[in-house]
Automatic annotation (TrEMBL):
Membrane-topology annotation of the record: Single-pass type II membrane protein
An example molecular function term from Gene Ontology annotations: [heparan sulfate]-glucosamine 3-sulfotransferase activity
Species of origin: Cyclopterus lumpus
GO CC entries: Golgi membrane
Presence of keyword Transmembrane: yes
UniProt name for this protein: Sulfotransferase
Disulphide linkage map: C260-C272
Length: 314
């Protein structure tokens, strides 16, 4: 067995489950209206035991969600955590709690990878964090859902967001034109989505109406790059998982400029995230960046106080 095979040999599902489990054959009626608070009801449980005895693999609703933030590093967290044997994750973004809610929970559950009882189900959709209805809808699915939020300096995040849009629509106005009202420096246009998303505290207050802070875990998008194993260690702790993903799973890829996953076994390839992750950002003048930092400062301070962590974005 070579070094990497030994690292990955630990990656077999365990037998105990860190979350309260919904019965394998739990059925949900259609969500009566998109905003209905209707959650799973006891009488809707068809014989869960006999069902899972016949087939231990089933589609479960997510126990944990990566809810944001857009351009924070959500794909990296998903791809890193899914190498854990007790995690199964949906690779695509289902956008259930924002765009597809009227399709109902059965539709959503059907999208999920099949899991053993010992495994947790995870999905990521970064737009949930800024979707007003998302916390209420998620808590109506299950009020014990664990929530992961990957946060990043909101100024860098806004530039990353703009860079992504520009790569798809080259004719959009400049960053400065969009970020400031009347294109004059000083008055930040907080109605522009790229700016608004970074006012984390405003969105968090909405989540805290439905979830306790202890149900939320905040990943530093910056440390995820400089110390992926450390951040992923904390994610595993939060999810109640054995710490299996360690620094042995990562290497720094100089060409990409980011940490990547080591190859799983002798025949496998090392895995870096795709080209849309780690783009070269558009150049923004120092003065503009300082204005935006000034704008975000009070929001950041309140956010740090609320979550009890200083992300050091100054
Ligand atoms: N290991 C690794 N590899 C590549 N990229 C990494 C990694 N870790 C974090 N990041 C940062 O992730 C940023 C993209 O964030 P998201 O995945 O949340 O974007 S998205 O909202 O799903 O589009 C992306 O933002 P940009 O650098 O602005 O492209 C990266 O900085």
């Amino acid at each position: 067995m070579n070094g990497n095979s030994a690292i990955y040999a630990q990656l077999v599902p365990s037998t105990s489950h860190p979350f309260p489990r919904m019965p394998a054959c739990l059925t949900f009626g259609p969500v009566s209206s998109p905003d209905s608070d209707r959650g799973p009801k006891e009488e809707e449980v068809s014989d869960g035991k006999s069902c899972s005895a016949l087939n231990p693999w089933r589609h479960g609703l997510p126990n944990a969600l990566i809810v944001g933030v857009k351009k924070g590093g959500t794909r990296a967290v998903l791809e890193f955590i899914r190498i854990h044997p007790d995690v199964r994750a949906l690779g695509t973004e289902p956008h259930f709690f924002d765009r597809n809610y009227d399709r109902g929970l059965d539709w959503y559950r059907g999208l999920m990878p099949r899991t053993l009882d010992s495994q947790i189900t995870l999905e990521k959709t970064p737009s949930y964090f800024v979707t007003r209805e998302a916390p209420r809808r998620i808590s109506s699915m299950s009020h014990v859902t664990k929530l992961i939020v990957v946060v990043r300096n909101p100024v860098t995040r806004a530039i990353s967001d703009y860079t992504q849009t520009l790569s798809k629509k080259p004719d959009i106005p400049t960053f400065e034109e969009l970020a400031f009202k009347n294109s004059s420096l000083g008055v930040v246009d907080s109605s522009w989505n790229a700016i608004r998303i970074g006012m984390y505290i405003l969105h968090l207050e909405n989540w805290l109406q439905y979830f306790r802070l202890s149900q939320m875990h905040f990943v530093s998008g910056e440390r995820l790059i400089t110390d992926p194993a450390g951040e992923m260690g904390r994610v595993q702790d939060f999810l109640g998982l054995k710490r299996i993903i360690t620094d042995k799973h990562f290497y720094f890829n100089r060409t990409k400029g980011f940490p990547c996953l080591k190859k799983p076994e002798s025949s496998g390839q090392p895995r870096c995230l795709g080209k849309s992750k780690g783009r070269t950002h558009v150049q923004i003048e120092r003065e503009v960046i300082e204005q935006l930092q000034e704008f975000y400062r009070p929001f950041n301070i309140k956010f740090f106080e609320t979550v009890g962590q200083d992300f050091k974005w100054d």
